[in-house]
Amino acid sequence: MNCVILGSGKGSNAEAILKAWNQQFLGNTKIKAILSDKPDAQILKVADSFGIPARHINMDQDSAYISSEESKTLFEIINEYSPNLIVLAGFMKILPVNFIDKFKGQIINIHPSLLPSFKGLNAIKRAFDHGVKITGCTVHMVTEKIDDGKIIAQAPVRVMETDSLESVTQKIQAAEHVLLPTVIAKISQEYSHHTE
Ligand code: GRF
Questions:
Q1: What are the phi and psi torsion angles at 88 (to 5°)?
Q2: Percent of the chain with pLDDT over 90
Q3: What DSSP character marks residue 62?
Q4: Predicted TM-score (pTM) above 0.90
Q5: How far apart are CA 114 and CA 17, in angstroms?
């Protein structure tokens, strides 16, 4: 199963995926490339350190949206890797509908809340400020609606009296680093059964 990871940030989820992959935990998954809209994103360095092709895709830094021109380039580059699975791991751009349609059912995202609560940006802080006692992270299918696709897996994180926003963030990220590789391993297993 060919897998391409997209991200814009520090790449801790990508690193967790690559570690799991190194430990043969992801079945027959091949991590083909890591792509980022940010030229100096740490996620590209993570890819480098694991010897995975790391590519910056030029996109307007002032918009959350991807133009049709940018989308065409993104599609062409991703297609070079014939992906069966596209993993959004902290990718901060909103994918255009026609792009999502081209890879229907093949794009997953990790979000730092228990969806459908706290969709969108700053989810951890909004949940914490709201006083939730249980939060967590969700891996879901990507559809044209933001953070709205079918939920694949979730991990709960308890918020204690003694927790701060920082400690909750750490706990959620630690949970993400287990959940996302686990989901990829499961998808890869299902993929193998279908293609056998
Ligand atoms: C994660 O918390 C993820 O849930 C959100 O963006 C963050 C990415 O972190 N979508 P990293 O770049 O994987 O460290």
A1: -90, 115
A2: 98
A3: T
A4: yes
A5: 21
